[in-house]
Write a structure and sequence with these properties.
Elements: H1 3-15, E1 33-39, H2 50-60, E2 64-68, H3 69-77, H4 82-91, E3 95-100, H5 110-130, E4 134-138, H6 148-165, E5 168-172, H7 183-193, E6 200-201, H8 204-209, E7 227-230, H9 256-265, E8 269-274, H10 279-282, H11 286-298
Parallel strand pairs: 1-2, 1-8, 2-3, 4-5, 5-6, 7-8
Helix pairs in contact: 2-11, 5-6, 6-7
């Protein structure tokens, strides 16, 4: 067969084949598994202690709680133990999902960063004793401009510390914190860490406030986000917005349906955690706020 006839045969044969997209997969991607958490900041103005917050969250029907290190320390200051706090979570059938702390591990100053790592290790140790497997890792101590490759090396060290303690750091960015306010910065830092245990902790409000937007979430593998802070924002100018302006999901102007679709489609196991600082809600009954927050999240999931 000459070359011309061979090409004709190949061309004719190809027309009988179905046209498939390149790299088509026969395995359908599973949607994310969603659970719901209450960040204790949502009830901060109610001045409740940790045992009472656990009671409120359990009654509302949450799967878990995000506590703050300061609340854990306040609990211990009453003379109670970490073992008794772990039992409170267990008896309430709640998971200690994550903890919020402020150790300056990402500081460019070596002495401050060293102190931050020591603080992180201490706090991770306490969290491990109550069964909490995650801790937020915001860029505390960092100053502008940040060398993101260097920050990635620091984050890699923090991840290694997490494996040692059993409490994994979730890299967090804040929309109003100029040195580290953008999803792109967090993605670059996590990539520079070059570690399979790198995790991001995004927040609807911070994605908006820092100008990241929400399309970048579509670049993220589902397993890279285990905790996602849920809230909404109003029509107030972006740069004028404060933490206290956050509202229930769906009560603002955020693209909540699109965000929900993105989170579900990316796969992985996720805790959606209601994090609000709204003084209007603090003036209401705590149980009503917890109940309403869970209902508002579930309408999108």
């Amino acid at each position: 067969m000459n070359r011309r006839n061979l090409l004709k045969t190949i061309t004719l044969g190809a027309t009988a084949l179905p046209i498939l997209p390149a790299f088509a997969s026969t395995t359908q991607k599973k949607n994310a598994t969603i659970q719901f958490s209450l960040n204790t900041s949502t009830l901060r103005g109610h001045k409740l202690d940790l045992p009472k917050i656990i009671e409120v969250a359990a009654k509302a029907g949450y799967d878990g709680i995000e506590l703050w290190i300061s609340e854990l320390e306040a609990y211990l200051a009453t003379g109670k133990s970490l073992a008794s706090l772990k039992k409170l979570f267990s008896d309430a059938n709640l998971i200690a999902v994550n903890a919020i702390g402020f150790a300056p591990w990402m500081a460019q100053d070596l002495a401050k960063s060293k102190a931050g790592f020591e603080q992180m290790e201490k706090e991770m140790g306490m969290l491990a004793e109550i069964g909490c497997k995650r801790v937020a890792a915001p860029a505390i101590g960092a100053t502008d401009p940040i060398d993101l490759l260097a920050a990635g090396e620091q984050y890699a060290r923090l991840i290694a510390l997490g494996r040692k303690t059993g409490v994994m750091p979730q890299l967090e960015f804040w929309g109003a914190f100029e040195p580290f306010h953008q999803l792109g910065q967090a993605l670059a830092t996590a990539a520079a860490a070059n570690d399979p245990d790198a995790r991001l902790l995004p927040d609807v409000y911070h994605l908006f406030r820092g100008g990241s937007g929400f399309e970048g979430l579509k670049l993220i593998n589902g397993s890279a986000i285990e905790v996602f802070h849920m809230n909404d924002f109003t029509s107030k100018p972006r740069l004028d917005q404060k933490d206290s302006d956050r509202v229930y999901p769906g009560d603002g102007i955020g693209p909540m349906k699109e965000i929900a679709a993105t989170l579900k489609a990316m796969g992985g196991n996720k805790f959606l955690s209601l994090e609000l600082f709204n003084e209007t809600y603090w003036a209401q009954d705590a149980q009503e706020v917890a109940n309403t927050g869970l209902k508002k999240m579930k309408q999108f999931f």
